[in-house]
């Protein structure tokens, strides 16, 4: 029998937790209504809609089907000399995270290949033992073999996708040396340090690294209950997604779009990948990108892969260009799409020019630039002023 005082304490804790959850829900609802009313201009209807030109299933070397999409340039913009751009998404996301970049690259006349990493998006859920960064590198190689078998390449990876690119380069260096003219590492890490800090520091990070997989695996057995909780507490979920994904105002539609990707990933899959991410170390693989035009991008307020992770990559790749975006979090390509689109287009142009003119990239000085998305700031300020005037006149 439970002692009375322990039962009262438990009841008190339960009521307190319920009160905190209710208060959080009310606060989150208020924030979300503000986004819906004022910031929808940042993600208008149809902004994230896209239909690929081709879809295919690429079979990984262990038999897992991988979902792949291809965008072809318009006939009047097609140029055989232009590279194919292969984009790899991050942990708990999907190829949908690149929707605004794929549109911009296709409009500029490039062929774009995107894929869902194993157990993510529309790719098949794989055995937990195969959910490693090494296997993802082999998966990317298979995608290239099937969807971009010849011609120059540009490799772009976000977060875990950047690790995938490093892993592929480590295992298949000839592909990088012979075909890759440019690479972009976005909000990612070469490893060699604890990856799971979540902004709480290394001590808590090490604790999360040990306990996170077991915790996720345990609650992953109750996925239906988790899905029900999501529907009930959607406002709170949005607040959490916003905090860890972005560092500037975004539209409510962007929060939901991101949250649906993250929480659409089964908790068991999250648990499967965490151990490999936490011990990831591909610093030596970056040697394969020496002499290749390389862009490293991160958000200044990124809680998952802070700027020091990007700085470590830059130190290991001579001639790499480092761009730090102010007021930006981890999902930077949805938060500041115009900035990222511009950086990618400039990177590809630099890579084509370096390849054609045999420029010695290693002799370039390292460049570190801090970029402020002034266009977005103006749009947010204008939206808020317009909403305020509308509220006063109502």
Automatic annotation (TrEMBL):
Biased composition annotated in UniProt, kind: Basic residues: 376-387
SUPFAM superfamilies: alpha/beta-Hydrolases (SSF53474)
AB hydrolase-1 domain ranges (all copies): 83-337
Segments for region (Disordered): 374-394
Any Pfam family matching the protein: Abhydrolase_1
Protein name: AB hydrolase-1 domain-containing protein
Species of provenance: Pedococcus aerophilus
């Amino acid at each position: 029998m439970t002692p009375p005082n322990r039962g009262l304490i438990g009841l008190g804790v339960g009521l307190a937790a319920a009160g905190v959850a209710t208060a959080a829900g009310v606060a989150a609802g208020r924030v979300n209504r503000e986004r819906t009313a004022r910031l929808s201009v940042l993600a208008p209807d149809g902004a994230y809609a896209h239909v690929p030109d081709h879809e295919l299933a690429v079979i990984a070397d262990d038999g897992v089907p991988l979902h792949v999409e291809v965008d072809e340039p318009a006939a009047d913009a097609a140029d055989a000399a232009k590279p194919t751009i292969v984009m790899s998404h991050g942990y708990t996301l999907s190829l949908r995270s690149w929707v605004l970049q794929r549109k911009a690259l296709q409009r500029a006349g490039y062929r774009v290949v995107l894929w869902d990493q194993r157990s993510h998006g529309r790719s098949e859920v794989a055995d937990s033992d195969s959910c490693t960064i090494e296997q993802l590198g082999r998966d990317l190689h298979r995608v290239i073999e099937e969807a971009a078998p010849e011609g120059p390449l540009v490799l772009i990876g976000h977060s875990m996708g950047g690790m995938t690119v490093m892993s592929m380069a480590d295992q298949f260096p000839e592909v990088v040396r012979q075909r890759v003219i440019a690479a972009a590492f976005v909000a990612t890490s070469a490893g060699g340090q604890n990856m799971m800090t979540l902004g709480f520091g290394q001590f808590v990070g090490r604790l999360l690294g040990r306990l996170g997989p077991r915790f996720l695996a345990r609650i992953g057995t109750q996925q239906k209950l988790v899905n029900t909780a999501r529907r009930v507490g959607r406002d709170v979920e949005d607040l959490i997604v916003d905090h860890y994904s972005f560092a500037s105002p975004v539209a409510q539609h962007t929060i939901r779009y991101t949250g649906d990707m993250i929480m659409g990933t089964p908790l068991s899959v999250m648990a499967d990948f965490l151990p490999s991410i936490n011990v990831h170390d591909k610093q030596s693989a970056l040697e394969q990108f020496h002499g290749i035009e390389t862009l490293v991008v991160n958000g200044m307020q990124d809680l998952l892969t802070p700027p020091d992770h990007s700085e470590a990559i830059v130190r290991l790749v001579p001639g790499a260009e480092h761009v730090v975006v102010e007021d930006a979090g981890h999902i930077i390509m949805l938060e500041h799409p115009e900035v990222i689109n511009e950086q990618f287009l400039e990177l590809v142009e630099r890579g084509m020019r370096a390849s054609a003119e045999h420029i010695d990239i290693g002799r370039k000085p390292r460049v570190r630039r801090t970029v402020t998305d002034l266009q977005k700031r103006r749009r947010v300020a204008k939206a808020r002023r317009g909403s305020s005037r509308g509220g006063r006149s109502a």
